[in-house]
Amino acid sequence: MANSDHHHHHLPTPTLDSESSTLLHTLSEHGGYAYVSMATRAAAGDVRAAEAAREMAWEQLHSGPWHSVLPVWRDAYAMACLHVAKLHFAAAEFTDALRALDMGLLMGGPLFKSDLHAAVTKVSAKSRPAAVRVSEQNGPNLDRRLVRDDFKATEMLGVLPPKSLSCKTVVKKSGLSLEGFLREHFLPGLPVILTDCMAHWPARAKWNDMDYLTRVAGDRTVPVEVGKNYLYPEWKQELITFSQFLERIRGNDSSSGAPTYLAQHSLFDQINELREDICIPDYCCAGGGELRSLNAWFGPAGTVTPLHHDPHHNVFAQVVGKKYIRLYRASLSEELYPHTETMLCNSSQVDLDNVDEREFPEVQDLEFLDCILEEGEMLYIPPKWWHYVRSLTTSMSVSFWWSDYDSSATS
Length: 411
Known about the structure:
Layout: H1 14-29, H2 33-43, H3 47-61, H4 71-90, H5 94-107, H6 113-137, H7 153-157, E1 168-169, E2 172-174, H8 178-186, E3 192-195, H9 202-206, H10 210-217, E4 221-226, E5 236-241, H11 242-250, E6 260-265, H12 267-270, H13 272-275, E7 290-299, E8 304-308, E9 313-320, E10 323-328, E11 369-373, E12 378-381, E13 386-391, E14 395-403, H14 405-410
Parallel strand pairs: 1-11, 2-3
Antiparallel strand pairs: 3-12, 4-5, 4-6, 6-7, 7-14, 8-13, 9-12, 9-14, 10-11, 10-13
Helix pairs in contact: 1-2, 1-4, 2-3, 3-4, 4-5, 5-6, 6-10
């Protein structure tokens, strides 16, 4: 690595510069002497030491259940990622630098978040021109939309669980006021489809464009799920770039093996450009609570989220593509046979795609609401309502979870 390049490719990390010694001191108190020695050498420009420090912190993150990991080790991991990224960046290895920064954002603590985000902006600016050149070579005539309009309704409806769309569908309302939402849906706890609330979102125009997504997020590393769903033994998680993910979902006709799904990931904390493409719906202020999480659900046709319930109010926004959603009231919990293990107690043992009549004889007769959620529509799912979700096309959705004023104090 030639030193003459250093001044060309320098990543400023103000928090790292000011907080390093304090963090290293704390780590020494927790017995992390080997880490401290490697991190100190990394700061002086030793690439191998930077990798070693990152490896040590990684092992600490995986030494037991996530909640038992000392927060200081999460910051140590982010620190090591910053050192690795700075050294790659100095050597003009932009892709490697970006991957290190993403790992810091995904697994690291909060201390160096601002440094990581600022560095991502700087590294992306350097690596982007190459990505743009590639997409220009693809030529303007290629259809670069993720979802085309050739949705074959009959084919899709054939894959839905029995009795779908035969009973009550979720009511649709256009231009519902916040007061109307509170009175008619939030307080009584009744689902509703809200139409015409997303026309002003930049995501509505941009997210169906492969070139846009590749440009703003293509080199970023994201966690994906591979397999039918999280209740299956073959299910696994992988880290891949967003470009690889887009190619997989674009080429995915579910027959090609296990679908790849970017599910329940706080993508918008990680990739600022995508966060700017969406707006928090006013309905999420209902009840005076606070937004708990903002998650991305991107995947091919055929991805299924099995029947489960969540503790929060949920506005589920369908940005690209279509989804089938089925809902059962919270009061039907017993009849839906929740799993008995604590980790899965909010998931049902009933596989709606393949109901075992002997084991769950009553399920077919339970009353439910369902709908096909179209592009540009949002569905309000009240807390504890059971829901099953299936993508009918390649689909990009965003969920907004919030708690009302009473529960935000306790949960």
